Model the fold of this input.
Amino acid sequence: MTKWVYGFGGGTADGSASMKNLLGGKGANLAEMCSLGLPVPSGFTLSTEVCTNYLDNQKSWPDGLQNQLAKALQVLEQQSGKSFGDAANPLLVSVRSGGRASMPGMMDTVLNLGLNLETVEGLAKLSGDRRFAFDSYRRFIQMYSDVVLGMDHDLFEEILDEHKDVQGFATEADTELAADDWEQITKLYLALVEDELGHEFPDDPVDQLWGAIGAVFDSWMNDRAKVYRDLHDIPQSWGTAVNVQAMVFGNMGETSATGVAFTRNPSTGENLYYGEFLINAQGEDVVAGIRTPQALTERAKEEIGDTEPSMEAAMPKVFAELTEVFKQLETHYMDMQDIEFTVERDQLWVLQTRSGKRTAKAALKIAVDMVAEGLINESEAILRVEPSSLDQLLHPMLADGHNCPIICTGLPASPGAATGKVVFSSEEAVIMASRGEDVILVRIETSPDDIHGMHAAKGIVTARGGMTSHAAVVARGMGRPCVAGAGELRIDYSKGSFMVAGQTVHKNDVITIDGAKGHIFSGTATMVQPELTGDFGVLMSWADKVRRMKVRTNAETPADVKTACDFGAEGIGLCRTEHMFFEESRIAAVREMILAKDKAGRIAALDRILPMQRDDFVEIFQIMRERPCTIRLLDPPLHEFLPHSERDVTQVSQATGIAISELMSRAEGLAEANPMLGHRGCRLGISYPEIYQMQARAIFEAQGKVKQQTGIMADVEIMIPLAATARELEILQDKIRQISEQVTGHQGFAPEYQYGAMIELPRAALCAAELSEFASFFSFGTNDLTQTALGLSRDDATSFLGDYICQGVFEKDPFVSLDQSGVGQLLEIATKRSRLARPDIKLGVCGEHGGDPASIHFFEGLGLDYISCSPFRVPIAKLAAAQAVLLREK
Amino acid sequence: MTKWVYGFGGGTADGSASMKNLLGGKGANLAEMCSLGLPVPSGFTLSTEVCTNYLDNQKSWPDGLQNQLAKALQVLEQQSGKSFGDAANPLLVSVRSGGRASMPGMMDTVLNLGLNLETVEGLAKLSGDRRFAFDSYRRFIQMYSDVVLGMDHDLFEEILDEHKDVQGFATEADTELAADDWEQITKLYLALVEDELGHEFPDDPVDQLWGAIGAVFDSWMNDRAKVYRDLHDIPQSWGTAVNVQAMVFGNMGETSATGVAFTRNPSTGENLYYGEFLINAQGEDVVAGIRTPQALTERAKEEIGDTEPSMEAAMPKVFAELTEVFKQLETHYMDMQDIEFTVERDQLWVLQTRSGKRTAKAALKIAVDMVAEGLINESEAILRVEPSSLDQLLHPMLADGHNCPIICTGLPASPGAATGKVVFSSEEAVIMASRGEDVILVRIETSPDDIHGMHAAKGIVTARGGMTSHAAVVARGMGRPCVAGAGELRIDYSKGSFMVAGQTVHKNDVITIDGAKGHIFSGTATMVQPELTGDFGVLMSWADKVRRMKVRTNAETPADVKTACDFGAEGIGLCRTEHMFFEESRIAAVREMILAKDKAGRIAALDRILPMQRDDFVEIFQIMRERPCTIRLLDPPLHEFLPHSERDVTQVSQATGIAISELMSRAEGLAEANPMLGHRGCRLGISYPEIYQMQARAIFEAQGKVKQQTGIMADVEIMIPLAATARELEILQDKIRQISEQVTGHQGFAPEYQYGAMIELPRAALCAAELSEFASFFSFGTNDLTQTALGLSRDDATSFLGDYICQGVFEKDPFVSLDQSGVGQLLEIATKRSRLARPDIKLGVCGEHGGDPASIHFFEGLGLDYISCSPFRVPIAKLAAAQAVLLREK
Done:
């Protein structure tokens, strides 16, 4: 019989930290902490297998679960000394989700479960606080009705507001309500449920429990959880675990508290405790950002200029216990921990620990520091930094001495700088971003419903909530700059503006934010490129030591080539020569070439393009020096170069002397039903060899020129696009060899080059052995290979790709992360066959996937020689490539 | 050392008939005939490897060739008792091409080689005929200058005409010229060559020989040879052999002759000698169709009403020898032979034998007759008929009693009937055919330059030439009806008309020809479908006995389904349901469905389509009875159904009440960059499940209705198009199962169906094991699989595919004959993997390739269960499938 339920408590546990996949992160760590002897409320975990089983079988429970749960409940009752439904000593539990990966705030939770009209009296007696008991009860009813019974949260708020109104309380003043108030409200709540649903609110704690467990599992499939998974590449098939745990109460008066802490600063990585707590509150109050919490340490309190006492000062004994827990956990896990704790009448309880989310900057610093501290080794450090997160560090930051006036300062919730137009709703953010506009999303506070808007925005500002508020956590995860809790802002959604320090900022006004400092500026501030030194440089140097694959870049403009080299690119993996054709000054000659009626006309136009193309290569070779440069000859269908707008057509007609009508008909003649599969790539080279020959000549002459100027012979690789057969490569090899011989004759020494092919068609991959006879290198063009292998046009797929990911046809967008089980097979076949036929063949990847960490792991598995990606992704690719080596060794 | 040269003569030979690939058909058969003791002039063959080696190495001769050739020449001199350049007893040779496959008239030949000013005198003495010697010499100079030296043929004709003029001869009267005339002309020819080329005509016979051999090899790459190869699927890589053979002369007076014979009638297949000969002529005179030759037998002479004596009558002794040769060769080769012979002063020489080209009708009759005669067995008979040639028999013939007036009668050169507009040039034929018009090409005679025009025409008429003239041979090969030698026609190219029996027929007038009877009619005659019985039925029944793969058809209209069943289709392999949507009466509802704003609107429109679609299936199931029907659900992108012309848009706007502007913008919204790779196939089914559900309902309800009417449960296979992943099949399987359950509920019994997928994407082929979990059958859609695997849009490839085939990138059009080495691999992988995962999976092919014999052989090799093709190709596919079994057993 499958084990579905794993208990923990009383210093032992069925599970351990290594069982994350089965128990979820929270469940695994609760078990681990129990085994470590930490003060953890007892409980049990329903495994992720229960979830997948439940969802796969029309929401029916697997065999044996009910028995196992009943037994686990018995053990829990023993360990806690309390019983479900016992009016004298009632057991109350929390029911929380906990998946393999953290999805903060995305899924549902039920607290205080076990309360009913009898047990609430027991709780009142035991706690000696009738007000607390009924407040807990009404919170439970409200939460359970929302999460499990699907009732509208607002209905309960209305009852509460009406009660306050009738009794003459202010709307905000929950704390003024007495036990009797809460008791009355509780009864109104229960009546409301019966009214709305036609049946009573469930009374039996066991019924309550099953309802809550089902609801938490169901919440795995709610919309915001799906969106979060899409954004964070979490497979739907993982499912979530559910943790049922004895309640402890941080809201039992002034000796009770609840808090969240990081063992180091998750924003900067500094080795300083970092966190927030609230006296007399339940944990959700801190995370939800409704009350602004107090600092953990005296030092932090002073730094942010808080007036409330720190926990260090207010609860010195418990704080000392807590710091012991911090040390023990960080040493045990060898990583910075994110800890939730509750103090119930001076007794510390640890409710959760997990590796803390952190900014890229913090991840770098913590990893490098921990190596210095001897906690982890260099390899561990390399694995600690999520490659994609480096993106945050590779984009511009605010320049010192920029002149934008500061508007106000909030909490530095997520680092990085951003400029954009102010918007006040996630919908607006999405719409304007889709038009290509940069926006800053300004909200009083954010909720899980804002995920889309936060993703669309360049930066986020909130008026309420702390460093661990929803906005702050999510923004850091996304790498979006965020200023949180900017309390001075008075936001008026209806007017579409906010006031601050007597100044009004309207929707569409431009502001700049600095998430590292918490500053908000009006206007557009100058940005600078960050220095890629310090912790970044150290970690990258460690990564370079273990990395096997070379990392090149896809670039063709001197500026991009330069940037990529600064980021450590070891060569150019894809220089798209057609991009050089679009420049204002040359497009006329290019169009003349295309519109030429015969070969002579084409050659005349090509002769005009030659010197420009040669100069391009001279510039590139000068930057690249000895580093290899893969130059792809002309690839796109010719009609892409033709004028389309009326204005352009007129201009071209004037420039070339070709009648407008002829231009139009020629463009029509070149139009194709499926240009992706049409007359492009090496097919152009075969039809019009003079085009490729001009390009080869430009390359060879540039190489010769740079050789004469600098003594360095550029390491040139000429790449043929869209080859499907060996014969195409053979034909074009000859054509290019002819030019090489001519150039040798003119310049007195022979060009040096390798000749190879871009593998972007399934046939080419399958016939790689044959093609390799004519190619000393292959570069996988995984974009087009994905399009052809899947029969999926990238341009047209947007209309249904979302649906496809939702319904689990694809786990991720196959244009972002390689479809390893499909397209990956083609790479595998091509790699094996070409190496067998030509053992010294050089193999690389130059599609977008070359910058995607998951795909890079796959490429490492294939043993490719290099990957190539856009300049800004070079460090990401380098780190991911190093991690791939380490993970394969594990 | 490679053996390059193979001798034959004196009753022995280095080669044999089995060495066709190496020696070419002609060389192999010359060797074989020598070994059989037949009277063959001695000679030797340069192998096809010499050709490929020569062409691959910039036209340089392979090592060892020169020595081997020198030795072979020595042997030839010994065997013939003559010597190269020997003024007393000169050896003269012919140099002819001879490839693996016959390419009549496509390549170059040099005769009488070895003549110079000295040896011509020797020939004169030996032959006792000075006129003959100098006529031979001038023919040689003219031919050699044309073929080897690249001079214009007309320059020589001018000299000849001028001489005739000066001497007062009529232009036609070559026979009136005396020895002196020819001697003078010879000298003028030699002077002309020196004048034009700046060097003397080569004098040394060995030099002449090398020149001629090179020229013949070069002619393998001439344009007309390439076109012929393309049309006949002959790979360029085969190369040609060259045969050097001692000359014999059919033009040594009245006891000499030359002829061409078939051992049976190549047009009807009757077991009667058939052929033509000319007294006092060289062989080329017969084939070239310049003189109209005489019949071989008395019976044939009478049948065609010839006035000249037959060979049987004119040369009874030699004719008797010849018939002995016929019997010996046919018995030896067990096939009808096409024989070239020459009689030199009453001595019979056999110059060539090969399996005779024949019409499909003749092939059938000969194969069936030879089984009856005990010459071959049924399997051999099956292999004797070229499947594609059956096409000739499967198309309409002239109906008895049609009323068109006969214009005249020529020779029945190639059977079949055709109607079309008269054109007088191949260019016109190509142009008008490309506009979709049927044309009949009318020429005085045809030459290899007319290949394109003959292919474009529906039928061919010539005024000159016999049954073995160029026009007749080529037309039979192509399966085009042809009336040859219609001597009454007086064609005036300049006026664009011909006169016959006082009647003038102009260009663009419609005529009808009956190639089986040699009749030409004016106007359009009624045609009938031929009976598929007799020899055809016998052969097909033999083929059915050995055939392993089932043959289905691609059809969806009741008429097509019926035709296919008449042709013996064993099921429907592809019923394209979208074709049913285009009918005038339903397109409005289809458009409404597509233009619906929401699901409700879509469902309302689908409800209107349902009964029509159901009726379609009822009709098909009634015809097909127990035979399986694979029904493919909607496949093309929706915008294909939208109106495009202004008139259509207006109509739809009126019918649906949707504004024109909205219609236009909706159509624009549905337009795609690459519709082939867009929102189509099962992607539509996933996005709009209600469409596929309507189709499933129509199928199930039709099945139920037919079951109730006839008691027969249609064998339904529902096929999902364009699947790339297992998940797509899983999702749609559920949707269809829902409908099956609903229909079960309504009709009281469950629909029976298999569920499967069309494999047309590389990913699907690679992941066939996974997909097979949800599919009990796969049908390879090789059209789209070719498009995606090669990244080649069928619609757009026409602009460069010709180039690609010319340059040897593809051997054949990959949309006509499967790219076995590329796309074929995907089929192989999918077949292996899906069978491993699901041993009982049914596998078939429903692309165009299902009717292509070469592809069918490949499918047999894979062990597929069935192939499916268009109705008219069903018999072809059945025969090819039987041949594939037999060839694999060999």
